[in-house]
Amino acid sequence: EIVLTQSPGTLSLSPGERATLSCRASQSVSSSYLAWYQQKPGQAPRLLIYGASSRATGIPDRFSGSGSGTDFTLTISRLEPEDFAVYYCQQFGSSPEWTFGQGTKVEIK
Amino acid sequence: QVQLVESGGGVVQPGGSLRLSCAASGFAFSYYAMHWVRQAPGKGLEWVAFIRNDGGNKYADSVKGRFTISRDNSKNTLYLQMNSLRAEDTAVYYCANFRYVSGSFDSWGQGTLVTVSS
Known about the structure:
- The complex is a heterodimer of chains A (109) and B (118).
- Chain A has strands at 4-7, 10-13, 19-29, 34-39, 46-50, 54-55, 63-76, 86-93, 97-100, 104-108.
- By secondary structure, chain A is mainly β.
- In chain A, the strands form two sheets. In chain A, strands 2, 4, 5, 6, 8, 9 and 10 form a seven-stranded mixed β-sheet that branches. In chain A, strands 1-3-7 form a three-stranded antiparallel β-sheet, with no helix packed on it.
- Chain A contains no helices and ten strands.
- The N and C termini of chain A lie far apart (36 Å).
- Chain A is 0% helix and 58% strand.
- Chain B has strands spanning 3-7, 10-12, 18-25, 33-39, 45-51, 57-59, 67-72, 77-82, 91-99, 104-108, 112-116.
- In chain B, strands 2, 4, 5, 6, 9, 10 and 11 form a seven-stranded mixed β-sheet that branches.
- Chain B is globular and about 40 Å long.
- In chain B, 40% of the residues are buried.
- Chain A binds chain B through residues 30, 32-35, 37, 39, 43-47, 50-51, 54, 56, 88, 90-92, 96, 98-103, and chain B through 35, 44-47, 50, 58, 94, 99, 102-111.
């Protein structure tokens, strides 16, 4: 089973700053099958990025994804107040298998 | 628009059973693989089970042999039968639809809380 490790666990930033979140896989992941989700308290997760770099419908362009192989990154170019949340990466493997990272919390500094 | 509405959660004693439902609308349910994903209080997301449109399925090791996923395409409804429940099964359970082409969970329900406690 592929394990996804996200870092940092918590990111303390101010509105307007840039956020860089990391997702590292224990084995190579197909870029086609790496996704990122945002979750706010009391809400369901929301798909942000699929295929490592494609934005889901309605997602602002301040969110971008990149990476390949075992290292993937979610970047929020300028944090808006509504972006403070927990972010999860997720991969889909051929077994088939589905795994999530443990999450990165982006909090207001 | 896509809607997924879970129901059936509640408080159950250890060893008990519960059946969750997920009513789907706004998309061609019978063509989609569907999943259950859970989240223990204060914890991250954990994949639980999957069912293809033809009924093929797979389970996380933590629930294998205790949980059964099923679907009724005529009712656009997904189910999760949970038996032999344990305290560690306490979580919010989400249903989600899955797109193979992107490998992602496109839409999620609001979740239903299952609490296993004596």
